[in-house]
Amino acid sequence: MALLHRVNRAKSLSSLLRPLTTAHNHLHRPFSTDSSKTLTIETSIPYKSHIIEPPSRSVETTPAELMDYFRTMALMRRMEIASDSLYKAKLIRGFCHLYDGQEAVAVGMEAAITKKDNIITAYRDHCIYLARGGSLVSAFAELMGRRDGCSKGKGGSMHFYKKDSGFFGGHGIVGAQVPLGVGLAFAQKYKKEDTVSFALYGDGAANQGQLFEALNMAALWDLPAILVCENNHYGMGTAEWRAAKSPAYYKRGDYVPGLKVDGMDVLAVKQACQFAKEYVLKNGPIILEMDTYRYHGHSMSDPGSTYRTRDEISGIRQERDPIERVRKLILAHDIAVEKDLKDIEKEVRKEVDEAIAKAKESPMPENSDLFTNIYVKGYGAESFGADRKVLRTALP
């Protein structure tokens, strides 16, 4: 393509480097001074649409953006792999749902919106939290139930939260986050904020009645709600074809437009989310189906190999892996060399290890913390015995 540039490798790498500007405080990789030059790249496969014209397959990006994507997804991948090890070492207890394989959805979506837009999701929430600006230390501290966690160690893997960045959490009840997401969109329209809300759910939650009830309300009131089905093709030990008569989730809205997106292509996700945001601000809700894949099982208690073959998983890794796709783009357009990318992966590994060590230093919550974050602070609450005569305790 005429827009594609080549780095002059005769020059020393150090003379070509400058800091990478990014919204993530953990992304700092420097590289080429012409990193802002526009590249036009076509998505790997066309979009499929329902009662709406799909967006263009040609996506504009820059070398800086591609390097940002690579590092962010590598960081997410490493965080999830480390979480697997921490769980097996019993430093993470309870439920734990990993996101490795689906990183392009989190990163592409974030690239298309601002922190004033809202995101709410189910329990596979670690990487969404990181994309919203959360730190590795607070993520690992929460996973290990420590006080420095993003939910003060009381939420664990399924309940990450970052309100100041428009992340309204992971939710453990299947599909329950969708009505909440529509409620967030209602508030945005009521306040005339000109922002949108993304409500994420999996293919396993796509048959929930509350999803359709919420969608009906969103359509009646033309709310700026984007329902995102992260279709990784397996629910809790069940293939989608065994659970859904119609697995074309982007068409499920019937009267609501839909778009099927290659969820393993970060640029396709970015383009689709930009398109969806512009659409819903003028017209009301839309459904995006992200065709993606999880490498781990449904949760850490699921080996993920009883209902699918290892060959299937390795085939997806070889042909569709989101990180490898960006790696190939970077190398093909001479944005960086293989050693640069290997160095980034080494940095990421070190960064994750350091974050884990710091998170381990965080103390466990006090027993008294069990009584906090239940009632509105300052209002007080009294607890009486069964006869309503003996005051048992008074909370501050």
TrEMBL record:
Organism of origin: Spinacia oleracea (Spinach)
Class of this enzyme: oxidoreductase
NCBIfam families, per the entry: PDH_E1_alph_y
Domain Dehydrogenase E1 component: 72-366
GO MF annotations, alphabetized: pyruvate dehydrogenase (acetyl-transferring) activity
Names of required cofactors: thiamine diphosphate
DNA-binding is among the record's keywords: no
Function statement: The pyruvate dehydrogenase complex catalyzes the overall conversion of pyruvate to acetyl-CoA and CO(2). It contains multiple copies of three enzymatic components: pyruvate dehydrogenase (E1), dihydrolipoamide acetyltransferase (E2) and lipoamide dehydrogenase (E3).
Protein name: Pyruvate dehydrogenase E1 component subunit alpha
Signal peptide limits: none
GO biological process: pyruvate decarboxylation to acetyl-CoA
Catalyzed reactions per annotation: N(6)-[(R)-lipoyl]-L-lysyl-[protein] + pyruvate + H(+) = N(6)-[(R)-S(8)-acetyldihydrolipoyl]-L-lysyl-[protein] + CO2
Enzyme Commission number, as recorded: 1.2.4.1
Assembly, per entry: Tetramer of 2 alpha and 2 beta subunits.
Keyword tags: Oxidoreductase, Pyruvate, Thiamine pyrophosphate
Annotated transmembrane regions: none
